[in-house]
Design goal:
The protein has 454 residues and is of the alpha/beta class. The chain contains 17 helices and 12 strands. The protein has a domain of 184 residues: Nucleotidyltransferase, domain 5 (2-Layer Sandwich), CATH 3.30.420. The strands form 2 sheets. The protein has a 7-stranded mixed β-sheet with strand order 4-3-2-1-5-7-6, sandwiched between helices.
Length: 454
């Protein structure tokens, strides 16, 4: 096993506060006005106080443990995790999710720590939530009966150009984030729904928005530009990048456990239903595969990844498809699902002998390997390849295929270590470190929430 070596210097995660346009600056198309000109910026103090003046304690009972609630709302799910409000690095109190919301088959699922908790009957004996609002109401009712709730942290996929860090939510901040919905239509509306609900029902409860795009604001301008007329960059058309909370989680763990790796050239592969890769050097994002929206980059569960932009007008002119139909195809009907015709779940495809399933898996791997080459070029090499996400953490087959595809970069697999899901699975002769690090976007959100209310 070849372990990382080199400088022990540590460069921390950026803690800058974002700068957003002035309220009232939206004239005409809000997206065209959302991004300030290259030459200026606007003070954030007019939107929120860096030190929250109100903190909801949930329950007046002083013996209840103080907690932070982290929420990640999807199209049919509401994931949650409760953290110690005094120290978010401590073990999670409990976590889980409401699945199948709006599908007619809703169900609560809980983490192992919560299954052993006798209070699980609180949810099991209750009415299954039909939608996000009911799920959130049940979750808050439970939380306020067991914890002193200090704040809620939310995952928000898109924060725009100037969102360099987490912010406290106010109605003005919500308005600005809502203007970014067209840039992340699969995620942003669901991320924002609990925030709207809580602003109406619990206005004194502190809410913190944490953005998936913020980690990538360190990228050089040349890596964010498209080859469009430059004035479109000033109007906000650029490569934003996503999965930043996951990448930040990996960097934080490296800073804590492997500080010698921070100065290295890293490629982190976040592989799941949504998938992307990121080049990281000195703890900073250098380049990433996702761009203006989360549909760009490598093949994903239902998203196409990068396509020739000329395909869009061709489908409109030659096949009569309108923009809504094309948008639906790119985001919901493509990727592993569209290629295989079977499933968007990698486990289903790896277990299938259908030719289309094999094509989907092969294309997934080929696109990853090709992007690894591109990201390596952006840094002038690669020292470590780190896998994370649902597929990256749990699929030895995909890790093996990717590593074999990177043999030209000197990657060499330790097959036994890989099959055993060991943290390091590179052969002793491997020119790059191969490792797997479980991500924790929820803990990253809890850290930001703790920092802003401390």
């Amino acid at each position: 096993m070849k372990l990382p070596a080199g400088s022990s210097s540590v460069v921390g995660i950026r803690e800058k506060q974002p700068v957003l346009p002035q309220k009232g600056s939206f004239v005409g198309n809000p997206l065209a006005q959302l991004i300030p000109p290259l030459s200026g910026s606007f003070p954030m103090s007019q939107y929120f106080s860096e030190t929250p003046s109100e903190i909801s304690t949930g329950s007046p009972k002083q013996n209840f443990p103080p907690a932070l609630l982290v929420l990640n709302a999807g199209s049919s799910s509401l994931k949650f995790a409760f953290f110690d409000a005094k120290n978010p690095e401590r073990p999670i109190f409990f976590s889980g999710q409401a699945q199948g919301l709006g599908t007619g088959h809703p169900v609560w699922e809980f983490g192992k720590s919560f299954q052993a908790n006798p209070d699980s009957s609180y949810f099991e004996n209750g009415t299954s939530p039909k939608n996000h609002g009911e799920a959130l109401s049940q979750l808050l009712a439970y939380a306020l009966s067991r914890f002193s709730l200090e704040a809620i942290g939310h995952r928000i996929v898109h924060g725009g150009r100037e969102s360099n860090g987490a912010v406290r939510v106010t109605p003005a901040i919500l308005e600005l984030i809502e203007a970014l919905i067209p840039l992340a239509p699969l995620h942003q509306p669901h991320n924002l729904a609990p925030i709207r609900h809580l602003l109406q029902t619990s206005p004194r409860l502190v809410q913190i928005a944490c953005f998936d795009t913020a980690f990538h604001r360190t990228q050089p301008m040349v890596n964010r530009l498209y080859g469009l007329p430059l004035e479109w960059y000033e109007k906000g058309i650029e490569r934003y990048g996503f999965h930043g909370l996951s990448y930040e989680s990996i960097v934080h763990q490296l800073e804590k456990n492997s500080p010698e790796s921070i100065a290295k050239k890293l490629i982190i592969a976040h592989l799941g239903n949504g998938a992307s890769l990121c080049a990281v050097e000195h703890g900073k994002s250098i380049a990433t595969t996702m761009g203006f929206t989360p549909a760009d980059g490598i093949l994903m569960g239902t998203r196409s990844g990068s396509i020739d932009p000329g395909i869009v007008p061709f489908l409109m002119r030659k096949h009569g498809m309108d923009l809504d139909a094309i948008d639906k195809m790119i985001h919901r009907e493509s990727g592993l699902l569209g290629i295989s015709g079977i499933s968007q779940d990698m486990r289903d495809l790896l277990g299938s002998n259908a030719p289309r399933a094999k094509i989907a898996v092969t294309l997934f791997v080929v696109r990853i390997v090709r992007e690894i080459g591109s990201l390596a070029a952006s840094m002038g090499g690669v020292d470590e390849l780190i896998f994370t996400g649902g597929i990256g953490e749990n699929s030895p087959v995909i890790r093996r295929l990717v590593a074999e595809g990177c043999a030209w970069l000197g990657a060499k697999l330790d097959h036994a270590a890989n099959e055993a899901n060991e943290p390091f699975f590179g052969d002793a002769q491997s020119a790059m470190v191969l490792r797997c690090i479980p991500t924790s976007e929820e803990r990253t959100i809890a850290r930001h929430t703790f920092r802003l209310i401390s």
